[in-house]
Amino acid sequence: MNGYSVFGVLAAAAAGLWAWRRFAPVSFWYGVGFPARAALVYLTWHHVASGCKLTRHRRRLRLTLDAVPVVGGASRTEAAVVEHKRRLRRVDVERAPRLGLLRPTRQGWRMRLRLHDGQVPADYQKAAEGIAHAWRVHSVRVVDVRPGFVTLWATMADPLTEVSVSSEPCGLLRVRPGKLENGPDWVMDFRVVPHWLIAGATLSGKSNLANAIICGLAPQPVALVGFDLKGGVEFTPYAPRLSALATTRKESVDLLADLMAEVENRMATCRAHGARNIWTLPEALRPVPIVALVDEVAELFLMADKAEKEEVSKTATSLLRVAQLGRAFAVSLIVCGQRIGSDLGPGVTALRAQLSGRVCHRVNDPETANMTLGDLDPAALDAARAIPAETPGVCILTGQDGAWHRARSVYVPEAAAEQAAHDYAHLTPDWNALVGSVPDVRPAA
Q: How far is 30 from 32, CA to CA, in rounded Å?
């Protein structure tokens, strides 16, 4: 075979690999990309671990030389005769953590590591950025922790560049607002995590997430309630699907009083029938779930003068009671805000403790990120502060699994949310009939 034939074969192979990668990227990754990356990881792991200070020195028995021959002596042509022997000695040996089997994913791979004595998962979280640079990947994260082991997840590229979710319904009080970084859809289940705190600066994607939630809940048999103290400009377009809407603090106090009275009615119904929550009631007695959306929580707690102190106190108390008691009675809260800090008063801090679901977009001040995620995981706080301004919708969230995830909400135009509100307006329960109904408190037979 001459040189031209070899060149033609190599060119055809290169073109075939390019076409394979271009038109079938998933199979190319599993067939070619991942095996090459796995070989690189295994061959360089010791050097990478040493550079990231994850190795440990152990004393091991090794055969060593006492001396070696040297050139010298009477003249340049003579060599000094040096007697050398091998001896068994204890020496310091640098050992990298034991690397388990690499398991491919659609975006990268996962691998389990065995911790050295004295190591903790935080050591690998600190070294994750260095490992990502050494392996030339987008990111490396600690995704699973077990006694003596950690699991690292490496991603080749940012999976949140383009986001799309399944259009299939996912059940009552469940919505798919976006995508998680590790591939699956982001599912908000209000029966598991009933209350959510959503923080984000202007143009960070907070309003888009609210649009996605409204589009997901609009076709479901639930009652939507809005608190919009910015004059109603945010939630008024969705008024056909809202059972009630408060646009001033006075209206908010009255609406929260009605909401708390409805919680007490449902509490009396469950007590009369020996049920711990409404989901264990007979279906004929089960009330309609209620989801309350608060657009700007700071407006509920800010005071212009002392005359508003009583209204603020009533609002904070009612909102906190709804958050404390609403879970068992299908009353959920979604509290949004640009600025969430301790300077708003102790009511905000107490309310935050009841909102177990947290979503933090890009924020303007560190305290808002700290109030949203700081009490859960310091690593999540660092990730939230690193969200760039040119990626609206990207957020850090914590939910029902107890771990934090990087996610991005799917783009939902305001026109689409308004159209969903009009299309499903016939499902809107009448608020006066809902809160004015007399509960069935007859004891169960």
A: 6
